[in-house]
Structure to design on (352 residues):
């Protein structure tokens, strides 16, 4: 019996790889992806990029099982916490423009938020998850599920949850706290007068011409060609929990593999950021986690990679960009795989 979905997906892979070969690439890069053993039930996209363009891609499975829509070059995926990378880039651009400083206390921009801290929380502490502000927001979500669908502005959420005593002195510990990024969203809106979504669009997405990337959240228009995500059950059930707008900075961006490659090249090798900002973006602030600003920097086979990973609902994303030359690995998954599995796939591609 012919697996119609497999035939469709294989056809899409041939079409995408053919486009790459028409641009002068393919061959070894196609083989690098085609030879990769994937976990059972994997659905999503694998891609390799060079200098901002895809040179090989392997779409796998269905973007929407119920609608019979296969994954294609134009399919968009949620990036989860890789959103933080784009937001950190926007903050660095504001820093370059003199509109804020990474080393300024948060209280300079949000004076009523934490005015009494003996050791001030700096903007860079938020971006590196070293602020010491306890994540009371995440703890409250279980008791107050309506927060998941709230449209409260980021500043209101920050004011409600950011007033507790610090868990540790800023810069002396690490906590992957969603509340840090709510505060970042509130802070940028105070500085620019615009919601975070508009600021990232103006400072990052538009200059890099990321036409297939945007914020997939309740207060934004529905995103065409967005893949559905599924839990690890049989038959598969959708796993697409709503993400409230006040979490925009921590995990609501979605886009195509081509845009992920374009973003990595533009941020780390293009003219979007100056050299000092690129260095800031990749300087590790917490070594035990390889964490820099808005993402990690990992060494694979002796080579440094910006390592932008994320998960939300059943979506998994990993954008790994080689820092010594512009090569990008993209792994997008929509079947709720363990993040360690996604990382292992990217490492296998990097070492191939």
């Amino acid at each position: 019996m012919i697996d119609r979905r497999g035939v469709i997906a294989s056809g899409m892979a041939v079409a995408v790889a053919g486009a790459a070969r028409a641009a002068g690439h393919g061959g070894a890069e196609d083989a690098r992806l085609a030879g990769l053993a994937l976990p059972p039930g994997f659905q999503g996209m694998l891609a390799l990029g060079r200098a901002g363009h895809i040179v090989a891609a392997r779409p796998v499975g269905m973007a929407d099982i119920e609608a019979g829509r296969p994954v294609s070059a134009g399919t968009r995926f949620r990036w989860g916490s890789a959103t933080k990378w784009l937001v950190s880039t926007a903050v660095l651009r504001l820093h370059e423009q003199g509109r804020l400083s990474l080393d300024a206390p948060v209280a300079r921009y949000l004076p009523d938020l934490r005015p009494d801290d003996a050791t001030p929380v700096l903007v860079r502490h938020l971006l590196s998850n070293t602020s010491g502000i306890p994540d009371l927001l995440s703890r409250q979500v279980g008791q107050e599920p309506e927060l998941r669908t709230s449209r409260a502005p980021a500043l209101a959420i920050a004011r409600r949850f950011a007033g507790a005593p610090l868990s540790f002195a800023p810069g002396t510990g690490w906590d992957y706290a969603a509340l840090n990024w709510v505060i970042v969203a509130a802070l940028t809106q105070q500085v620019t007068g615009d919601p975070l979504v508009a600021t990232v669009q103006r400072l990052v997405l538009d200059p890099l011409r990321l036409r297939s990337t945007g914020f997939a959240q309740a207060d934004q228009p529905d995103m065409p060609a967005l893949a559905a995500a599924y839990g690890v059950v049989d038959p598969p059930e959708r796993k697409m929990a709503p993400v409230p707008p006040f979490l925009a900075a921590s995990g609501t961006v979605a886009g195509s593999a081509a845009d992920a490659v374009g973003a990595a090249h533009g941020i780390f090798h293009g003219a979007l950021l100056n050299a000092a900002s690129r260095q800031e973006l990749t300087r590790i602030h917490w070594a035990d986690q390889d964490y820099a600003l808005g993402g990690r920097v990992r060494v694979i086979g002796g080579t440094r990679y910006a390592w932008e990973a994320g998960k939300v609902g059943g979506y998994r994303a990993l954008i790994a960009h080689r820092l010594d030359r512009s090569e990008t690995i993209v792994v997008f998954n929509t079947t709720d795989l363990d993040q360690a599995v996604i990382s292992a796939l990217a490492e296998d591609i990097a070492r191939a």
